[in-house]
């Protein structure tokens, strides 16, 4: 495990990630759980956008440990995730001067866990998920708001999760923890494994 200590110490990268995120929740002004998610389309052209990470599953979970977020399955990001089956993201905290980079395999979470998360959202967010045809052309905001009003009348105060909306689970094969260092001599540790059942190997990287 090399000379890892302090904020890098431990044998479970998911536990380290959870600790860093918890610290960021007390220092970041907005959305400490924001991640820059990267995908590629059918032609290999990359795409990136910000999404909100909703859960870090520990390596004792059935998935073998994963990072979970939710979106519209008809969106461009979802189509690219389904096609490639792989993704990467970076989570950066300016206040802490730290970041986490992840690369791994992707699968859908569209069962009871997705239902539970959807039910926990505000009513307006749940109705918005029904109304938005995410990534599709929109002629005006008025059209969108009219669709929201229509859905509100149709679905009522307790709408069920749309069949086209749910989660994605990123099973990491690589996790890199980075912390700012003096004179740009940063600390970097990369965790790697072959699959969800393999042991992790950890290596310090040059800045």
Quick overview of this protein structure:
This protein is an alpha+beta fold.
Give the overall pLDDT as a whole number: 95
Q: What's the shape?
A: elongated
Q: Based on the coordinates given, report the CATH architecture.
A: Roll
Query: What amount of the residues lies in strands?
Result: 25-35%
Organism: Thioclava kandeliae
Domain Pyridoxine 5'-phosphate oxidase dimerisation C-terminal: 165-207
Protein name: Pyridoxine/pyridoxamine 5'-phosphate oxidase
Binding site for substrate: 54, 117, 121, 125, 184-186
Description:
This protein is of the alpha+beta class. The chain has one domain: Electron Transport, Fmn-binding Protein, Chain A (Pnp Oxidase, Chain A, Roll). The chain is built from five helices and eight strands. It has a six-stranded antiparallel beta barrel. The radius of gyration is 19 Å and the shape is elongated. The model has no long low-confidence stretch (mean pLDDT 95).
């Amino acid at each position: 495990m090399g000379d890892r200590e302090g904020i890098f110490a431990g044998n479970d990268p998911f536990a380290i990630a959870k600790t860093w995120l918890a610290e960021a929740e007390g220092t970041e002004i907005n959305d400490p759980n924001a991640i820059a998610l990267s995908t590629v389309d059918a032609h290999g052209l990359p795409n990136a956008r910000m999404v909100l990470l909703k859960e870090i599953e520990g390596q004792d979970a059935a998935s073998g440990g994963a990072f979970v977020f939710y979106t519209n399955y008809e969106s461009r990001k979802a189509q690219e995730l389904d096609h490639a089956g792989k993704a990467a993201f970076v989570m950066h905290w300016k206040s802490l001067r730290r970041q986490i980079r992840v690369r791994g395999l992707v699968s859908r979470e569209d069962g009871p866990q997705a239902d539970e998360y959807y039910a926990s959202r505000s009513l307006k967010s749940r109705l918005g998920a029904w109304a938005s045809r995410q990534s599709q052309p929109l002629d005006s905001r008025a059209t969108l708001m009219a669709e929201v009003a229509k859905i509100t009348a149709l679905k009522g105060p307790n709408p069920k999760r749309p069949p086209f909306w749910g989660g994605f689970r990123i099973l990491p094969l690589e996790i890199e923890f980075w912390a700012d260092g003096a004179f740009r001599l940063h600390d970097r540790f990369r965790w790697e494994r072959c699959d969800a059942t393999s042991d992790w190997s950890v290596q310090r990287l040059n800045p």
